Automatic annotation (TrEMBL):
Transmembrane segments: 723-743
Name of encoding gene: ABSGL_09550.1 scaffold 11342
InterPro entries in alphabetical order: Galactose-bd-like_sf, Kexin/furin, P_dom, Peptidase_S8/S53_dom, Peptidase_S8/S53_dom_sf, Peptidase_S8_Asp-AS, Peptidase_S8_His-AS, Peptidase_S8_Ser-AS
Subcellular location: Membrane
Composition-biased stretches (Acidic residues): 769-792
Alphabetized Gene3D superfamilies for the sequence: Galactose-binding domain-like (2.60.120.260), Peptidase S8/S53 domain (3.40.50.200)
P/Homo B domain ranges (all copies): 482-622
Molecular functions per Gene Ontology: serine-type endopeptidase activity
Top-level taxonomic group: Eukaryota
This protein's name: P/Homo B domain-containing protein
Length: 813
């Protein structure tokens, strides 16, 4: 417990100031508060410290009105009846009150008249053992609000409008945060970086919590993320949700004593290099990265952070936050109405990001919020006629029009800031475990809720449910960090098996591929507790949106990996795409897993399955010794009907050991610069298996794509050598190809100048629900239009060429 206390303090001091006071766990710390910042204050503080018999330690960070003093921890605690008396507090009380009776020097008297209060630090920090203040049974949201205002001194005029904090209309439909604040847990010591457009750090509501050292503008390459464009307001709104100061402007942030950095990437062009740098920017000081953007949510895009960007995420989780891992929070996306699914977005379906969707004030699913099996949790945002009230750009400006999954991600980031302020030592995976363990299922009438073997509920629209600030902070206090990650990887060669048509007939016959997982494999990988599962899939298909995929566990839990996307007519197929699911968290993996692949909608477009790899990630058994075997040596086998392939454990499961030393490290992912078209795929697809030598119509291979001859080296995919060589070639290639990629891709991945609410008439069919054309002066009206349309919301900013082009057109007009 001392550890948390100490860690929090060190963290605080380190963030706030260069003044670092070495902490001694055998001492008790107190702060003295002098409301007036005067020249002699430090002198007064020393006087008080002396007359209390304590040691003067120094000022607290950059706060000029707080000073730290300390005393030895009392060896034997004296009790009067059953009440423990703190000698320093008692002495303070006594000397402050009875000053007139004590013989004091004039100097001492002045000091005593200036000091306002003393706070015992350890009590505040040691919330783990502290008794949670028993809130009065507050039957209605109104009472909760009044109680919070009174007990916490919240004077922000907009607080009453922040229904996501305290819902006065429907009691309980909020993030349940006031009892957390009342414990003194307000985000202190945590820094959240907002990767977005500008951040109005001059705003009265943000300036005291703005962390300039963690901020940067990657669009204009200057130090501060100043909003410049007329529509640079999104980052400011997100920052307000997280850390709007408790003052008399607007509302309050969820973690109103946390700090926010602004990392400006969405207000213009950035390169992959910039984006990679942004994803790791000051990642020792910026603890949480809140990201409300991604590839277009148009129901037909399929893009992932490959190459340098993939490495930036791995670097973040391995080295960020002193090795505990950057906490990346991503919005699921607003493509729900366009039939999009967050498993087709490589940012949201990454195991390294916490994927957060939206619910509205009625605890319902707003239609814009994307579903998928990679979604972990949901939290509040717009829909059903209400949006989020938060800070706006411009001094003391507020808005009640913030929404979309764009607003859900920062709300989650704010809650995670509260968690880290109590337990800064938690890892990126601990945070995901806490989400799984404490989320509350909502809207239980929804048919997709499924009771899992763990006893928890999961729903592709809601993940494990909504975040409850109180529940997650309480659980965090007691949480035992999980052991390091391991994985078990099982490649299946499908030898280009045709995917049967599923469009007609009652009995759909999907292509089935079975992977048998044995106790021995799990033991050899050291896997003790299952977390994420990825399925890396290679399919050639004439119409990508027709493919539907379900992964079924031995316990009959079904994850929707790929859903039909009507708008996706791409002939490019699926190349080394990692679908991800969190639905099997803590399930027993032993038994037969089946991947079902359906070909829906259009009978005349067909395809083949080339191969797939199931990877189970999870906690390594703390008692495991030796080298884990991540890729057991298995025999591939196909049943005679050609539609089922099974892999079985071989008798010599220990013969192959991967050279990879830590879990998430894979051969680097790069996009080859060559592209081939799908024209070689004939219209009529044969239904028998054919040799695996066919070159895939790939331009997006992201694994191992740089070995000479492309797929030539794949045959012996269990070979020790091939893994090793891939890793080597991949590593070399990333250096070599970084430049090529930079040149090749800079046009593809720069951010739009109009990251959201794109005022364009250029038709993006699936996105017209979002906005109408607007001029800068009409911004507010536009917001209102959105609002009246109900569930449509502000879009997640997009990172695409398309948007860029539209912006160009718009400017040209
Ligand atoms: C909200 O917080 C209170 C503690 O103040 C807790 O008792 C309750 O279980 C939490 N969750 C809900 C849904 O009320
Ligand atoms: C799993 O698959 C293997 C291989 O097809 C089969 O022999 C075994 O009976 C299956 N196990 C279960 C529990 O279905
Ligand atoms: C699957 O096939 C693709 C395309 O041919 C290839 O790039 C990849 O390496 C293969 N993966 C496995 C695990 O065999
Ligand atoms: C795939 O083809 C190769 C080479 O023809 C063969 O060795 C292997 O057993 C086949 N695998 C399956 C699953 O059919």
């Amino acid at each position: 417990m001392h550890f948390y206390f100490t860690a929090t303090l060190i963290c605080l001091v380190w963030v706030a100031s260069a003044t670092i006071i070495k902490r001694d766990p055998s001492r008790q710390y107190y702060t003295l508060h002098f409301p007036l910042d005067e020249a002699a204050t430090q002198h007064h503080a020393k006087k008080i410290a002396a007359s209390l018999g304590t040691r003067y330690e120094g000022p607290v960070g950059e706060l000029k009105t707080y000073f730290m003093v300390s005393s030895e921890l009392p060896g034997v605690v004296k009790r009067s009846s059953d009440q423990q008396v703190d000698p320093v507090l008692a002495a303070f009380e006594q000397q402050k009150e009875n000053g007139a009776l004590l013989k004091r020097s004039a100097d001492d008297s002045v000091a005593w008249s200036k000091v306002q209060r003393i706070d015992k630090q350890i009590l505040k920090r040691r919330s783990k053992r502290a008794v949670i203040p028993r809130a009065p049974i507050l039957s209605s949201g109104k009472l909760v609000l009044e109680d919070a205002k009174a007990s916490l001194g919240i004077k922000d005029p907009g607080f009453t409008n922040q229904w996501h904090l305290v819902n006065q209309e429907t009691t309980g439909n909020d993030i349940n945060v006031t009892s957390v604040w009342k414990q003194g847990v307000t985000g202190k010591g945590t820094v959240v970086a907002i990767l977005d457009d500008g951040l109005d750090y001059d705003s009265k509501d943000l300036k005291d919590n703005f962390y300039a050292e963690g901020s940067y503008d990657f669009n204009d390459h200057v130090d501060l993320p100043t909003p410049v464009l007329w529509n640079d307001y999104h980052g400011t709104r997100c920052a307000g949700q997280i850390a709007a100061v408790k003052n008399d402007a607007c509302g309050v942030g969820i973690a109103y004593d946390a700090k926010v950095s602004g990392i400006r990437i969405l207000s213009g062009e950035i390169t992959d290099v910039d984006e990679a740098a942004a994803l790791n920017y000051k990642y020792q000081e910026n603890h949480i990265f809140s990201c409300s953007w991604g590839p277009p949510d148009d129901g037909r895009t399929m893009e992932a952070p490959n190459g340098i960007l993939a490495d930036a995420f791995i670097n973040g989780i391995e080295n960020g936050r002193g090795g505990k891992g950057t906490v990346y929070v991503f919005a699921t996306g607003n493509g729900g109405d366009a039939g999009d699914n967050c498993n087709f977005d490589g940012y949201t379906n990454s195991i390294y990001t916490i994927t957060v969707g939206a619910i509205d004030h009625a605890d319902r699913h707003p239609s814009y919020s994307e579903s998928c099996s990679a979604q972990l949790v949901v939290t509040y945002s717009s829909g059903g006629g209400k949006s989020i009230y938060t800070t706006n750009h411009g001094n003391e400006e507020c808005t009640d029009m913030h929404g979309g999954t764009s607003a859900a991600a920062p709300n989650a980031a704010g809650i995670f800031a509260l968690v880290l302020s109590v337990r800064p030592d938690l890892t990126w995976r601990d945070m995901q475990h806490l989400c799984v363990q404490t989320a509350l299922p909502v809207d239980l009438k929804d048919k997709d809720w499924k009771q899992l073997p763990s006893g928890r509920m999961y729903n592709h629209k809601y993940g494990y449910g909504k975040l409850d600030s109180w529940a997650i902070v309480e659980a965090a206090k007691e949480f035992k960090s999980v052991n390091k990650q391991t994985y078990l990887e099982l490649p299946v060669e499908m030898n280009k098996t045709a995917i049967p048509d599923s469009t007609s007939g009652k009995h759909k016959k999907p292509l089935q591929s079975v992977v048998q997982i044995t106790e021995a494999m799990v033991a050899a990988a050291g896997l003790s507790r299952l977390e994420h599962i990825t399925a890396t899939v290679n399919i050639e298909h004439q119409r990508r949106g027709d493919i539907q995929m379900v992964l079924a566990s031995p316990n009959k839990v079904e994850s929707e990996l790929a859903t039909v996307r009507l708008g996706d007519s791409s002939p490019d197929g699926i190349h080394n795409w990692k679908f991800m699911t969190v639905k099997h968290w803590e399930e027993n993996p032993i038994g037969n897993w089946t991947l079902f692949v359906y070909d829906e909608i259009n009978a005349d477009s067909t395809g083949y399955m080339l191969n797939w790899t199931m990877t189970l990630f999870g906690e390594m058994d703390p008692g495991f010794e030796g080298e884990p075997i991540h890729r057991p040596d298995v025999n591939h086998d196909t049943t005679n009907d050609g539609t089922t392939s099974v892999i079985k454990p071989s008798s010599s499961a220990t013969s192959t050991q991967s050279k990879e030393t830590h879990a998430p490290a894979r051969p680097t992912r790069v996009k080859p610069v060559t592209t081939t078209t799908a024209s070689s795929t004939s219209k009529t697809v044969t239904t028998t298996t054919s040799p695996a030598s066919t070159t895939p119509t790939s331009h997006m291979d992201d694994d191992e794509a740089v070995s000479p001859g492309g797929s030539a080296a794949d045959k012996d995919d269990n070979s020790d050598h091939s893994v090793f060589i891939y890793a080597f070639v991949g590593t070399a290639a990333i250096l070599g190809l970084a430049t090529a990629m930079y040149l090749h891709k800079r046009k593809d991945w720069r951010a739009p100048s109009l990251p959201r609410q794109t005022p364009s008439t250029a038709p993006i069919a699936s996105m017209d629900y979002e906005f109408d054309e607007l001029k800068p002066e009409e911004e507010d009206e536009d917001d209102h239009d959105d609002y009246e349309e109900g569930e449509s919301s502000d879009a997640r900013p997009l990172l695409s060429q398309q948007q860029q082009d539209q912006h160009q057109q718009q400017q040209d007009r």
